[in-house]
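Duplicate of #3305? Posting structure anyway:
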């Protein structure tokens, strides 16, 4: 695969800079934090929902980000987007562990069922991404954004999914290609993984 457009600091100007910032804003941790808030408030309105959403967002989204930033500071990883796939192993393991912790706490304290299913999804999705990453680079961004679209459709409505989430599927896929972070095959594989993982959980009663 060719060198990413935003690999070098001096190249991060103009539209490349915008695309990089957009890519960070719609990264999977951010999107799942937003989904966690929506799901928690949908099932447990007001303060109970806010509390559970905060717990989920901190454990599943914020804690792994803090961990990655710490690894970046200590030189364990060379750059935030981890172009070197060998640097992704430890962050994936860490993210799966945090998702498992969230699942355990939400289950033990009888939190919102939607959040419990979302944490279970995170465990499966991140584990699959980590395993695939050992052999091939797959797009985590396209996996996450496609899952966001499907989850929005299943839980709220497909009209809401198409109106709110699907434009982001197109935008994220295009931006990752524009930045040369992924090939079309890696994007499509991510889209497929996100879809299959979410739909597979509906067979055990999740998101229905």
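Output from current build:
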């Amino acid at each position: 695969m060719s060198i990413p457009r935003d690999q070098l600091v001096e190249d991060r100007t103009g539209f490349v800079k915008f695309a990089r910032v957009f890519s960070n804003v719609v990264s999977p941790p951010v999107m799942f934090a937003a989904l966690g808030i929506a799901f928690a408030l949908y099932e447990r309105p007001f303060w109970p929902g806010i509390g559970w959403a905060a717990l989920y967002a901190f454990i599943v989204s914020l804690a792994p980000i803090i961990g990655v930033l710490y690894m970046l500071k200590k030189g364990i990883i060379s750059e935030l987007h981890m172009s070197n796939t060998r640097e992704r192993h430890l962050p994936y393991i860490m993210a799966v562990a945090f998702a498992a912790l969230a699942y355990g706490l939400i289950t033990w304290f009888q939190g919102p069922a939607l959040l419990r299913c979302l944490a279970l999804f995170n465990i499966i999705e991140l584990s699959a991404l980590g395993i695939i990453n050992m052999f091939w680079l797959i797009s985590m961004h396209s996996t996450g954004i496609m899952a966001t679209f499907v989850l929005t459709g299943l839980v709220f409505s497909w009209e809401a999914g198409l109106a709110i989430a699907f434009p982001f599927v197109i935008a994220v896929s295009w931006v990752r290609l524009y930045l040369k972070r992924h090939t079309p095959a890696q994007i499509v594989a991510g889209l497929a993984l996100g879809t299959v993982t979410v739909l597979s959980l509906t067979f055990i009663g999740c998101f229905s």
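Confirmed duplicate; merging threads. The chain is about 75% helix and 0% strand. The first helix runs from residue 14 to 25.
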